[in-house]
Specification:
CATH class of one domain: Alpha Beta
Radius of gyration: 32 Å
Strand content: 15-25%
Number of strands: 4
CATH topology of one domain: Glutaredoxin
Number of helices: 4
Shape: elongated
Low-confidence stretches: 20-25
Strand order of the largest sheet: 2-1-3-4
Helix content: 25-40%
Structural class: alpha+beta
Length: 134
């Protein structure tokens, strides 16, 4: 075979030139050696991915007690928002601790986001969504 001889059939649409093999000599048979420089590259994911992938995970805590229908509503709202946004969720039964019972007895449900009380009695899904996104 000659170096200028096409290999196989032409590919592509009529306006695209036929593909031909330009070089037939195998790289292994070359007389000159090929040297490659290898560089170690460390990529920071922070530079590649948008900031929202690196944002700290918010922590949402629901203080509740059993038999509380408002607590059930609050839990439902929190779980609905959790379906759309990533955050850690914990529910604490205030009846398990006398100090919590004294603090939250008539205020439940109380929802805190990152340690700050944000909701009492009702949870607004839109506001909670905004709090866990930022």
């Amino acid at each position: 075979m000659r170096a200028d001889e096409p290999i196989g059939k032409a590919v592509g649409r009529p306006r695209v030139a036929a593909v031909e093999r330009v070089e037939r000599v195998a790289i292994a048979l070359r007389e000159t050696s090929l040297e490659l420089d290898v560089f170690e590259v460390t990529l920071s994911h922070r530079r590649i991915l948008p900031d929202h992938y690196h944002a700290a995970v918010r922590r949402v805590v629901l203080y509740s007690r059993s038999g509380c229908h408002l607590c059930d509503d609050a839990r439902t709202a929190i779980l609905a928002v959790r379906g759309r946004h990533r955050f850690a969720f914990e529910e604490i039964d205030i009846e398990s601790d006398d100090a919590l019972l004294k603090e939250y007895a008539i205020r439940i449900p109380v929802v805190s986001v990152d340690g700050h009380e944000r909701f009492e009695i009702t949870v607004d899904e839109a506001q909670l969504s905004e709090l866990v996104r930022t």
